[in-house]
Amino acid sequence: MGQTEQEIKSLIDNNEVKDDELIELYGEKERIESGVNEAEKDYYASRGE
After folding, report:
1. What is the pTM of this model?
2. Which parts of 1-49 fold into alpha helices (H)?
3. Residues of 1-22 as b/e, b for ≥16 C-beta within 10 angstroms?
4. Residue 48: what are its φ and ψ, rounded to 5°?
5. Pairwise CA distance, residues 43 & 35, whole Å
6. Which domain of life is it from (predicted)?
């Protein structure tokens, strides 16, 4: 029973790390999208001149 509990704890701990990584990746995705939007605004503004 002790080994099973340890394996469950290990799986839970690993899952928490994956959740943190996922949150970081979503933050990075939002920053990239924001940068792309700014670049598109600049591009289209320069085409309109």
Report:
1. 0.60
2. 2-47
3. eeeeeeeeeeeeeeeeeeeeee
4. -80, -10
5. 12
6. Bacteria
Q: Tell me the pLDDT tens digit for each residue of 7-48.
A: 888 888 777 777 888 899 999 999 999 999 999 999 999 998
Tokens of 42: 């600049």
Q: Distance between CA 21 and CA 14 in Å, rounded?
A: 11
